[in-house]
């Protein structure tokens, strides 16, 4: 909101300097003592911090991180099916939509299921990616998402920024009721597993919402931490 | 809450440590005095050497270098930040103190670069000339009262009557020595600017010289009032005189007798330290400053002399205006109950404690006020401080002439202090704009942020 700056000349009291200086010292001293004597609320969600006693607003970044908002486009992941294979059917829609042309796909067929395609190679060059999210929009199978809540981790060589299908395939699996492999069955899925997947399947969302494109509570960091705790560090 | 108790514990520990430090200073001075007397030399020489070691190296240098860390951490607290804390020892940043070591290592290992065609000799001399006079100023500051040697380590006979004070030198000239040495510091800065063979450094040096020479005048005149009031030039006699009661039990502190003199002296001495709001000799955006061509420890000396000046300034102000080593509270009880050495140690601790508070106040001012423009600095000096100092001298002299018991002077000072307090308390904020967005940017918290920003 625009407001006018009041540039009136200083009155006599202000021209004496010291009253206003002492007022300023009072304010600065109040800040000093409050921040000195009381401990900081280290809540990463710093807008929610209790700042009644200590006014420090610092976020100690590597140790404390802000959780990103729900619509945040983070690192890509290939969404797995319940049986661990990618939902991706290698239709090249994402690679076509990608304005940075950072997605490379090689399609293949399951040996026992000639109807179904899958990506033999699915490579994203995270250095070329401009994080526009068009690939997520383009995907007809909800097979690629940017819901990890993480940006691409730094690395010392460029090769580490090229993510292949093994690194991309992670996170909670999803099944939809209109998935073709659930509706017609697939030789690559055992009948019991198929029943289980059908039972868990959700209706395919017709409206794009944050909830539809985001997996609540999922983060690559949490997954990595779990893997580390299991002793699967790579 | 644990931080609250921890901080109270640390501050209490600081007070105890300061008193213990004073005690240790007396013991060392007494020990050296006895050693010298046994070797056939005057006992006073030993005391002076002890004081040189303790007062100049411990009381001046340690806080002077700690202030470089304190500036980071204290400014952070004032601005709602945390400050330097990335050097961790066993998971604790120890209040940022390890940065002192890091800075020292960095300064000492950096290349000492000399610009082409610089005047070599003066270029190398300037940091020394900037640092040494400031350092020498502390020699006349009386940190602790005089105690007979017999009370310190039980020396007997004539040796036991030798008075040991925590003061390096006590020349008759006293404050005149202070003025003389303080004005030498200008050589360091102006030579640093001139010898660098750099236009911008020269500008910085010229600015520093003109600023310091201007403020030298009001600095001297501001203390003339106290000289008149206490009828002495010696700092230790001024401190003793401040213990006597005037206006009933209220002691004749310099701040009570000379409040205007204090303000003028504080402002002028602040200008002498060349720190914000008087940091015109340096200016990153315009001229960088007189130390532009310096690197390594030579820059470190110029940098450190600023902080040492803060320490010295605090010491002088405590001695002249805040009762020196007088603990002020419970003074008679302490003097009657404790041994002379213990009382003197508490006195020295009180002096050091007051110094710490004054150093903190100077840091606070530095982070509250924006810098002046150059013409404003000269205007403040010649048009405000100088006439006020002259007026203060006349009023003080007249009051002492009318009433030599200083009661009239104390009364005038009390009225001045009350008036200052009343003017400060009568907050007259700018009238709020009429069309209804006053609360959008006028809250107390908002102004606090605006004031703390630098």
Walk me through this protein's architecture.
The complex is a heterodimer of chains A (234) and B (454). Chain A has 234 residues and is of the alpha+beta class. Chain A has a domain of 154 residues: Alpha-Beta Plaits. Chain A is 29% helix and 12% strand. Chain A has nine helices and five strands. In chain A, the strands form two sheets. A three-stranded antiparallel sheet of chain A has the order 2-3-5. The longest helix of chain A is centred in the N-terminal third of the chain and has 20 residues. Chain A is elongated and about 90 Å long. The mean pLDDT of chain A is 84. By secondary structure, chain B is mostly helical. Chain B has a two-stranded antiparallel sheet. Chain B is globular. The C terminus of chain B is likely disordered.
Q: Which short descriptors sum up this protein?
A:
heterodimer, A: 234 residues, Alpha-Beta Plaits, 3-stranded antiparallel sheet, two-stranded antiparallel ribbon, 9 helices, 5 strands, B: mainly alpha, 18 helices, disordered C terminus
């Amino acid at each position: 909101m625009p407001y006018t700056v009041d540039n009136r000349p200083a009155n006599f009291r202000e021209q004496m300097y010291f009253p206003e200086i002492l007022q300023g010292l009072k304010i600065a001293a109040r800040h000093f003592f409050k921040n000195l004597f009381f401990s900081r609320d280290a809540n990463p969600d710093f807008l929610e911090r209790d700042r009644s006693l200590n006014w420090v607003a610092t976020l100690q970044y590597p140790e404390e991180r802000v959780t990103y908002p729900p619509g945040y486009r983070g690192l890509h992941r290939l969404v797995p099916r319940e049986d661990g294979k990618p939902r991706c059917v290698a239709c090249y829609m994402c690679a076509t939509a990608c304005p940075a042309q950072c997605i490379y796909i090689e399609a293949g067929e399951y040996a026992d299921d000639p109807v179904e395609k899958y990506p033999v190679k699915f490579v994203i060059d995270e250095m070329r990616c401009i994080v526009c999210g068009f690939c997520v929009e383009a995907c007809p199978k909800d097979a690629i998402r940017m819901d990890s809540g993480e940006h691409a981790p730094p690395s010392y060589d460029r090769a580490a920024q090229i993510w292949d299908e093994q690194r991309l395939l992670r996170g909670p699996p999803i099944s939809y009721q209109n998935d073709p492999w659930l509706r017609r069955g697939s030789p690559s899925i055992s009948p019991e597993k198929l029943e289980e997947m059908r039972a868990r399947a959700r209706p395919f969302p017709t409206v794009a919402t944050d909830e539809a494109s985001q997996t609540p509570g999922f983060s690559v960091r949490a997954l990595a931490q779990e893997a580390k705790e299991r002793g699967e560090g790579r | 809450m644990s931080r609250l108790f921890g901080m109270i514990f640390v501050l209490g520990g600081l007070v105890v440590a300061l008193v213990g430090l004073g005690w240790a200073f007396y013991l060392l001075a007494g020990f050296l005095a006895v050693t010298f007397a046994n070797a056939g030399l005057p006992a006073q020489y030993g005391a002076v050497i002890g004081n040189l070691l303790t007062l100049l190296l411990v009381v001046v240098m340690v806080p002077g270098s700690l202030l470089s860390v304190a500036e980071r951490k204290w400014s952070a607290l004032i601005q709602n930040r945390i400050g330097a804390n990335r050097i961790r020892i066993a998971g604790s940043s120890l209040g940022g103190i390890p940065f002192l070591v890091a800075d020292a290592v960095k300064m000492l290992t950096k290349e000492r670069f000399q610009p082409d065609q610089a005047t070599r000799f003066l270029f190398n001399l300037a940091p020394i000339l900037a640092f040494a006079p400031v350092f020498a100023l502390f020699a006349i500051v009386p940190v602790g009262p005089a105690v007979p040697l017999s009370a310190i380590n039980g020396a007997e006979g004539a040796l036991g009557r030798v008075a040991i004070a925590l003061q390096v030198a006590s020349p008759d000239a006293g404050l005149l020595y202070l003025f003389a040495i303080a004005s030498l510091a200008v050589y360091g800065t102006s030579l640093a600017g001139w010898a660098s063979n750099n236009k911008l450094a020269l500008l910085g040096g010229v600015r520093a010289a003109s600023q310091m020479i201007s403020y030298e005048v009001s600095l001297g005149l501001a203390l003339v009032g106290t000289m008149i009031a206490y009828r002495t030039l010696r700092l230790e006699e001024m401190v003793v005189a401040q213990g006597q009661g005037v206006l009933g039990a209220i002691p004749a502190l310099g701040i009570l007798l000379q409040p205007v003199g204090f303000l003028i002296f504080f402002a002028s001495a602040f200008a002498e330290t060349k720190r914000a709001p008087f940091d015109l000799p340096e200016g990153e955006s315009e001229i960088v400053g007189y130390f532009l061509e310096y690197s390594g420890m030579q820059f470190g000396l110029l940098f450190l002399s600023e902080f040492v000046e803060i320490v010295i300034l605090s010491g002088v102000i405590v001695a002249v205006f805040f009762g020196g080593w007088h603990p002020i509270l419970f003074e008679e009880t302490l003097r009657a109950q404790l041994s002379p050495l213990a009382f003197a140690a508490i006195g020295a601790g009180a002096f050091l404690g007051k110094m710490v508070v004054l150093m903190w106040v100077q840091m606070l001012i530095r982070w509250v006020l924006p810098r002046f423009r150059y013409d404003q600095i000269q205007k403040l000096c010649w048009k405000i401080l100088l006439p006020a100092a002259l007026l203060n001298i006349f009023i003080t002299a007249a009051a002492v002439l009318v009433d030599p018991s200083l009661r009239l002077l104390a009364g005038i000072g009390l009225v001045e202090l009350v008036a200052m307090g009343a003017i400060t308390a009568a907050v007259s904020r700018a009238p709020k704009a009429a069309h209804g967005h006053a609360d959008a940017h006028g809250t107390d918290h908002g102004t606090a942020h605006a004031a703390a920003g630098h």
